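G., the chain you wanted modeled:
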Amino acid sequence: MTAALLDIERLQVRFGQTVAVADASLRVAKGEAVGIVGESGSGKSATVLAAMRLHPPGASVTASRLSLDGHDVRTLPDRRMASLRGGFAAMIFQDPLTALNPLMAVGRQIAEVVAAHRGLRGGQARAAAILLMERVGIGDAAVRAHHFPHQFSGGMRQRVMIAAALAGDPALLIADEPTTALDVTVQADIVRLIRRLRAERDMGLVWVTHDLALMAGIVDRVVVMYAGRVMETAPVDALYAAPRHPYTVALLASLRRDGVQAEASGAPVPPGGCAFAPRCPARMARCDTAPPMLRAGGTEAACWTLAA
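Predicted structure as tokens:
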């Protein structure tokens, strides 16, 4: 088995009494693209933020394993973690307007990442920042480098974020809903850009989204999350052709608009049972008493209906 860029096993993230992620596992190998999909509140962002040690203060994070490049991010000194974050692994956030410093020219922001992770200084760092801006498709980069985030459109701000993420030459790129606020034409441009950059650099990719249609042409493997748990994981073609978990079936049905929906039963989430049980058309008594485990194979699904 090839060494993992990102290795998460049995992750739990809590905010007080609220469990945002429960018993989630995720592994990303060199050059592999993995999609994490699920509706809002399913634990997608909380999972990747924990991996980057960017979870909010007050969050409780536990795991059997939580590593980047073989390093345990839970115990790594802050300085070493800062080196990994941006150097080995970089993140593109959902809203670049809030992620970028509004009081600093974008070229300087990118140059600071270059200086921190590639050791270049002064004019060399600024020149590298301009080259990165050109590489992500920002025209007249030498001039635009002196502009501030509010002077860019949403799509161009996202390109600035991508340039900053690439500035440390990462082996792993984590994109957290990077196209959510963009119109469909700009979305397509950003997707094409990330696919090209990933192929050029042989980067690993984690693509976090709620958009199954957008994800289909980006990733090799899909992790489906619901209520903080992994419901199913499978190669992307297998998942779309033959989903196994009822929640995945419902997601794909809503995408196809074929009318097959998993309707809420009105019952509360069973304590200790399957989180999807109240909405599941295949619900049975066992679903209310014990959470199903992922069943091994090329496709893994956590569902009692698949038990032998």
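Residues 184-201 form the longest helix (18 residues).

Shout if anything looks off.
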